[in-house]
Amino acid sequence: MNKKVMLLLVCLFTSVGLMIAQTPKKVTGVVISEEDDQPVVGASVLIKGTTLGTVTNIDGQFTIDNVPSTARTLKVSYIGMKSQEVAIKAGAIKIILQPDSEVLEEVVVTGMQKMDKRLFTGASTKLSADNVKLSGMADISRGLEGRAAGVSVQNVSGTFGTAPKIRVRGATSIYGSSKPLWVVDGVIME
């Protein structure tokens, strides 16, 4: 055989081998929470080192098409869960995410916004049930009087069980209302 033809055949087989090795593949799998063994909806699944990725569906399943054959690792992340790196393998991949619980420093909650208490410029008072509870008191709102600055509690009627009128910082405020915002265990009460 001629040297030119043989060299051409070797180059042809080499390029075909490279094309087969670099053929994109499809990666599928499911993301599950370790806590309750339920699917994680909306978890981010990325090919490590690229921007190629997707999010999990309502069943915790994901599919990434056109994954380069050189890709070796998936990076899975979700809010409240520890990020995890998983090796790409043939078939469906089952990924179990663990909860990520971290201890926060002391914060001040204003409405629906959490803020570091050193950066907070308003007035706030936190009262625990142990400090407010008084024996013989029919209504807990009476225990608030004198415990927080600017709070006055007035009986509207003499009927037992009637809610008193609670004023904060006098009769008016900059927003035209002096009604307090009640937040009990993170839930706003009317």
Key attributes of the depicted protein:
2 helices; Immunoglobulin-like; 31% strand; 190 residues; four-stranded antiparallel β-sheet; mainly beta
Question: How does this model look, in words?
Answer:
It contains two helices and 13 strands. The chain has helices spanning 3-21, 129-132, and strands spanning 25-33, 44-47, 53-55, 61-67, 73-77, 84-87, 93-97, 107-110, 113-116, 151-154, 165-168, 182-184, 187-189. The chain is mainly beta and 190 residues long. It has a four-stranded antiparallel β-sheet with strand order 3-2-5-6, with no helix packed on it. It starts with a helix and ends with a strand. The chain has two domains: 25-97, Carboxypeptidase-like, regulatory domain (Immunoglobulin-like, Sandwich), CATH 2.60.40.1120; 107-189, no CATH class.
- Major sheet: order of its strands? 3-2-5-6
Q: Termini distance? A: 93 Å
Rg calc? 32 Å
Order of helices and strands: HEEEEEEEEEHEEEE
Biggest sheet character: 4 strands, antiparallel
What's the total count of β strands? Answer: 13
Secondary-structure content class = mainly beta
Instruction: Report the sheet-strand fraction.
Output: 25-35%
Shape: elongated
Please, how many domains?
2
Mean pLDDT, all residues = 75
The helix tally amounts to 2
Helix amount: 10-25%
Task: Give the low-pLDDT segments.
Answer: 5-20
